[in-house]
Write a structure and sequence with these properties.
This protein is mainly beta. Helix content is 5%, strand content 42%. The protein has 2 helices and 14 strands.
Length: 158
């Protein structure tokens, strides 16, 4: 049986463009950041725990590792956002929930739940479109995120 990587040979997991080769030596290890709902701050996630019905994340805050906080279940305290393996013009890693300044306008990065690919939705005069960009490093700049920079969220998203 073929592995997942073999079945998807030439598949770029970031923007779902068939035929764009991926570097197998540089396969992505999933990394996350977390928005603390009560504190209204973003933290790096150092680990995930799935030991109970409420999955938890270990965050690093004020120079210390904190007790695992729930990000799922009935009372989540964190909102998890996965980083892609792409960076913007300034070298910052692109993550789900980022607000980006793009050559076509202001957009929001989403992670498609079915394919796990990252997409940018933006407003046009006609309709919202899914935009695919194989060279993200040169075509967008992160200007904020949907939780910490609500004033930057385009009106079509609100």
């Amino acid at each position: 049986m073929k592995s997942s990587a073999e079945r998807h040979e030439g598949y770029n997991p970031f923007f779902a463009l068939p035929g764009i080769p991926i570097n197998k030596e540089k396969m992505m290890t999933p990394k996350f950041r977390a928005w603390h709902i009560k504190r209204k701050e973003m933290y790096p996630v150092e680990g995930l725990l799935y030991l109970s019905k409420d999955p938890r994340a270990i965050i690093f805050r004020d120079g210390l590792y904190r007790n695992p906080l729930p990000f799922g279940g009935e009372n989540p305290r964190l909102i998890l956002m996965q980083f892609s393996d792409q960076k913007d013009k300034d070298g910052d890693r692109v993550a789900a929930g980022d607000i980006v300044d793009f050559e076509y306008g202001i957009g929001i990065v989403f992670q498609d739940e079915k394919t796990s690919s990252f997409k940018i939705e933006f407003d046009t005069d006609v309709d919202n479109l899914w935009l695919y960009c194989p060279d993200v490093d040169n075509c967008l700049k992160i200007i904020g995120n949907i939780y910490g920079n609500r004033d930057l969220i385009p009106t079509w998203y609100r």
